[in-house]
UniProtKB/TrEMBL annotation:
Highest taxon in the source lineage: Bacteria
Annotated InterPro entries: Calcineurin-like_PHP (IPR004843), LpxH-like (IPR043461), Metallo-depent_PP-like (IPR029052)
Record's keyword terms, sorted: Cell inner membrane, Cell membrane, Manganese, Membrane, Metal-binding
Organism: Chryseobacterium caseinilyticum
Boundaries of every Calcineurin-like phosphoesterase domain copy: 7-204
Protein name: UDP-2,3-diacylglucosamine diphosphatase
Length: 274
């Protein structure tokens, strides 16, 4: 049985990269029936897009998005830095699928502001080549990490995250995350928002931020490379979905819900936008 959820927010899926956990994301998406789905940036990694690498599970994720949009789900695709080329299609609508740079919602009387968050990243805004190089390095690190974790699982040991270890031990990285969360929250408070939702930094979070001007709830949906997390809003409450906590209850679904679009046609569509 699928869970009915008012709002689901995912970000930083990075379809088209070796680190993307598309199969796991499909299992999650097949377990919920959201009234609204927000794709908060870096869903397709156009920076690292290659025609030679876009496996079937990645295409199935796109099919799933389209399938939801053809049914009863409002799907908002918010652009990020890795899929910034979609920004020229801002305000594009196809049925219930809409492309935008940011999103404003009213959730049970609470003003909600959703955007990817790369606007706060100086390396993205001013030294894009450095950011792209960093993206390739991160993807390579994830590939190596996946190989190490495969051996660890075979030996019955817990998985290990290289990037999390680096982030937690590098003071600049820790400060950057803290500054990011604080900047987003203070801007939200200044503009009268109760909730502010971001992605970009691959750090799932839900925390209340308060200053002299007021308070807001800062939320980050994390990513589908390492954390495998999403935000859910239902019956007036927010929660962070962690795939690892629920994976034993999720099943594979091999059915293609949109029969009229095959993999070759989907690849043509993706290529046209890149």
């Amino acid at each position: 049985m699928k869970r009915n959820v008012e709002l689901v927010v995912i970000s930083d899926v990075h379809l088209g990269t070796y680190g993307c956990k598309a199969k796991e994301l499909l299992r999650y998406l097949n377990s919920v029936q959201p009234k609204t789905l927000v794709l908060n940036g870096d869903i397709i990694d156009i920076w690292q897009f290659k025609k030679s690498y876009f496996p079937k599970p990645h295409l199935k994720v796109i099919k799933k998005f389209l399938s939801l949009a053809t049914k009863n789900t409002d799907v908002f695709y918010i652009t990020g830095n890795h899929d910034e080329m979609f920004r020229k299609f801002t305000d594009f609508e196809l049925g219930k699928l809409k492309v935008c740079n940011k999103l404003h919602l009213n959730l049970d009387g609470k003003k909600t502001w959703i955007f990817h968050g790369d606007v706060f990243d100086a390396s993205v805004q001013h030294s894009k080549w450095i950011a792209k190089l960093g993206g390739k390095g991160y993807d390579l690190l994830i590939v190596i990490n996946n190989m190490v974790n495969w051996f660890l699982e075979k030996m019955g040991r817990e998985k290990y995250s290289f990037s999390k270890k680096i982030k937690n031990n590098v003071k600049k990285a820790v400060k950057y995350i803290g500054d990011f969360e604080l900047t987003a929250s203070e801007l939200a408070i200044d503009n009268g928002y109760d909730y502010v939702l971001c992605g970009h930094i691959h750090q799932p979070q839900m925390r209340e931020v308060q200053n002299k001007k007021g308070t807001c709830l800062y939320l980050n949906s994390g990513d589908w490379i390492e954390n495998l997390s999403a935000l859910e809003y239902n019956e007036g409450k927010w929660s962070i979905f962690n795939y690892d906590d629920h994976k034993h209850n999720l099943k594979d679904d091999e059915t293609d819900e949109i029969q009229e679009l095959n993999s070759d046609q989907l690849m043509q569509i993706v290529t046209q936008f890149t």
